[in-house]
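=== RUN LOG ===
request id: a7f3
mode: sequence -> structure
chains: 1
length: 57
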Amino acid sequence: MWAATKEDQSGLICLLLYNPKTKEPVEMRIAAQKTFTCLWFSIAYISYVPWKRPAHS
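=== RESULT ===
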């Protein structure tokens, strides 16, 4: 189903998105930690970025 899938050794969280009408997987997203810094104050947060899409036959 997923083209060129390899085992993830990073231990990060992933999220699988489905099309509600067809109930088919649309996209897999992986967590990415980002940091926002303003002067001396930093905030770290997690966002999900596109990682893989299913291979179409």
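=== NOTES ===
The beta strands are 14-18, 25-38, 41-52.
DSSP finds no helices and three strands in the chain.
=== END ===
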